[in-house]
# Entry
Amino acid sequence: MTLHRSPATGLYLPDGGFHAFSESTQRKALSGAAVATRRTAAGAGSGFGFDLSVLPNPDPVLRKLGKSMQVYRDLRTDPHVGGCVRRRKAAVRSMKSGVNRGQALSRVAKSIEALFADLDMQRIVGEALDAPDFGYQPLEVMWGRVGSLIVPVDVVGKPPEWFGFDADNRLRFLSRDAGRMGELVDERKFLLPRQDPSYENPYGQADMARTFWPTKFKQGGMDFWFRFLEKYGTPWLVGKQPRSSDDEATEKLLDMLEAMIQDAVAVIPDDSSISIVEAAGKAGSAEVYREFLTHMRSEVSIALLGQNQTTEADTNHASATAGQDVTDDIRDAHAGIVCSAINQLIAWTVELNWGGKAPTYSMWAEDKVNQVMAKRDESLQKAGARFTHQYFMRAYKLQEGDLLPPVVVPPADAPAAPVAFAEPQDAPDYADTVAPLLGAIGQPVVDAWIERIRAVVNRAPSLAALPEALVAEFAELDDTQLVQAMTLALSCAQLAGRAEVADGE
# Structure
């Protein structure tokens, strides 16, 4: 039998009984307040400083060393670590960015765009990208008035060690006047980009913690390698002298050997000798140091870039390309951290000035054509492969309308179909076309003239009287129709000439 719950008061039990909920129980179960907190958990305050209202940073390296975030800043002075950090930041900074209006009013979106145009976004984005290195990076918002608007006039990154989190995971400024409890920061005063924060760890995950020990081991290995090279990198000079030599003579010969190492010349007694001893068989030992340092560098590359292919000298093109894809994933994740912080700033600005929906800030990378895949497709097409429009749209991330419809090429053995309304290959000359038309227009006029001449000849009394009779008949010849035809023909000829010039013929 199933349990039936009363709409507001309790549960009907299988035995027919009824269990009523107390009013306090109902309110507690339905309230929005958290039940499981650090204050209510048994033993939560022991050894973690919860009683101080500021949570300690659970970063394993900082807790182990008992040091501040400054140790991570010093770590970024390492050439390899610093290079990887710059590479990550450059990848995000190179992305395109813009404000999307969305459901916001047009004037609001334009105001936000104008606001960003006045801010040093490159610096702000770079400071926000310190969050993956340290886990979190507070950014103080400097508000000011521009006309009637309250807008951020600057955003400045502040040292993370100046801040902590209380038992409710709220950001506190560890000021001198507030003591160890810190001072709860004002709302809308600090942006807080973080990498993978959680309730257990509001400080976020610091990538510098993953690079600390590999970098320190690498630096220690470099020190041992230098000692090795100092000891075995150059040949040894061994001086020999008679057993009867006293200590003074031995010390003198030793000074001569030291001078010889520096100046490559020396003067020794003729009863002494010098031999050079090579450190044979030590090449293998040197490779051990090299492999160790390479491994530590790879660990740092994996921690910061997600791969170690594009940073090593022995990488081929294929592996480097694959590694770059992983880097793009990390780049997009870091861009998401930046966009989240900036969108929070936009939401505050809209709330303070206009209300309603806020536009959003986004970052994206321009898609690059995969040259390896493009060359492969070209080779396959030359070999006879045929690709669909859908394949090109999917493989090369094209938009609708980027590709024209495919041209259907008939087989070579297919009969040629007649093409209606097709232009001839060789257009005829204009004169050849218009001459018959002009003749047709003028022929009736000429025929009428011939009939009149025939009638005059038949009426003439003699051949000597014929010229006078023709002049009299045609004293006023009506050529109006023929002149109109010639005028039309000449106008058409002029237009045809202009058309040929325009076509480049």
Observations:
- The chain has a mean pLDDT of 76.
- The two ends are 96 Å apart (CA to CA).
- Residues 239-278 form one domain.
